[in-house]
Amino acid sequence: MDNKLDQNRREFLTKGAVLAAAAGTLALSASSSARAAEAVAATAATAAAEEPKAITGYIKEPKNLKDVLGNARKIMSTCAACDVAGAGRCNGKGPCGEGGPGMGGMRQSFVRRNIEAFEGMSLTMSSLHNVSKPKMETELLGVKLAMPILTGVTGGLTYNMGAANKLAFDGEVMTEDKYARGIIEGAANSGCLGWAADGIEDPLDTYKRRLEVVKEFKGRAIAQIKPRTQQEIFDRIDLVQNAGAPFFAIDIDSSGRAARALPGNTVDPNDLKKLKEIVKYAKIPFMAKGVMTVEEALMCSEAGCGAVVVSNHGGRVLSSTPATMHVLPAIVKAVRDRGYKMPILVDGGVRDGGDVLKALASGAHAVLVGRPMLRASLGGGVKGVEMQFKRFQGELESSMVLTGTADVKNVDPSILIREV
Predict the structure, then answer these.
(1) Residue 164 has what pLDDT?
(2) Is the pTM of this model over 0.85?
(3) 3-class SS at 44?
(4) CA distance 156 to 165
(5) On the CB side of 151, how many CA atoms lie within 13 Å of its CA?
């Protein structure tokens, strides 16, 4: 609505300038007329420069993921949307280059290391069994899921995707609200959960607009909060709870970036005391995202966190971090050995249903899928995200059948071979 109003206002001003200039030429000299014409042209050029950037070649009604990926490739300027091994299977080795923050990462800990960790594992194929329709349903913090997959926590059209002020596949301008709707509604329609993201430098009004989308789905959408001052976190928790989200996350690994991005504000890393304060304040479960060590996983367990996400933030916050799948097994073992039943999720480099099964065999309760879902929303909106979930669902089901896995809630670790 705001974009349309802005467009109408510009059109009105432009037309007014043209009429005024035309009327003026009746009383002006030839030279004055020329100057007036130049002024009109300048006004029109300014108005045109403010218009959304149209990009040719969009497929307005994408029929498949290849179409969706093609659309995403055209709208993004920070990611090449490579089609390396199938639609959306980025391997971290494309022409996007290195840099952070944004869609790039730092050195090997960017997408490449996470993906190579998955590629360094094999699934044991088994065909002599009676598993033909495996159970993929699960539950997370009281929410039923059609499969153990959530979208990744992604947002920021300007600084992450380079898609601001560009026309999307539907011929309308791409906005944060539209992107969030693609993620959230597409996930909800697929029986899963999508995140509304909080950007470090995003104003509160932007966050509130994303939460309006969360509110529409009545417990079938969730939200994340960036590291901020404790009071700012509490204020956002109130907003998330009022939107009806069943739980929320804080990507605790962003505290260093937040401190640099918000000069003058105190944004310190969380400690056990702060974690306990957040858990105590919130009326819904709190998920700590960005855990990479046994010690911090146990700290989150002690604090009463509802769940943790093993995540290195795609390698965008610290150079040379290990792959998430390399640290996941030790974290799961330590938490379970001490009797904690807190769900442990993982993200980073999940590109197909086989990867999902590998994560489950390593002890994860569910996975977060970032880049493929991000592209799906940019290139196809709600339908694009639904297509992406459907592809993951089919691949996960096939992987389970071909390993004799009957239920995602009981995946035998022995189906996984860790190659040297």
Answers:
(1) 81
(2) no
(3) helix
(4) 12
(5) 40
The one-letter code for the residue type at 406 is A
Q: How far apart are CA 267 and CA 258, in angstroms?
A: 6
122: tokens are: 């094999």
Task: Dump pLDDT digits (tens) for 18-43.
Answer: 333 333 333 333 444 444 444 444 43
Residue with tokens 């705001």: 2
Q: What confidence score (pLDDT) does residue 172 get?
A: 87
**CA–CA–CA angle 251, 166, 82 (5° rounding):** 65
DSSP 8-state assignment for residue 157:
I
pLDDT over 70, % of the chain: 76
Alpha helices in 217-344 (DSSP H): 230-242, 255-261, 272-281, 294-303, 324-337
Task: Tell me the helix, strand and coil percentages in the chain, rounded to 5.
Answer: 50, 10, 40
pLDDT of residue 253: 85
Q: Indicate the average pLDDT of the chain.
A: 82
Q: Sorting pLDDT into bands at 50, 70 and 90, what band is 261?
A: low
Q: How far is CA 412 from CA 357, 360, 363, in A?
A: 10, 9, 9
pLDDT attached to residue 321: 87
Q: Strand pairing partners for 144?
A: 139
* Contact present, 372 and 68 (Cβ < 8 Å): no
Nearest to 247 by CA among 285, 219, 301: 285
Cα(314)–Cα(111) distance, integer angstroms? 6
> DSSP readout, 163-225?
-TTBB-TTSSB--HHHHHHHHHHHHHHTTSB-EEP--TT--HHHHHHHHHHHHHTTTS-EEEE
And the tokens for 67?
């179409």
| CA terminus-to-terminus distance, the chain | 55
- The one-letter amino acid at 418: R
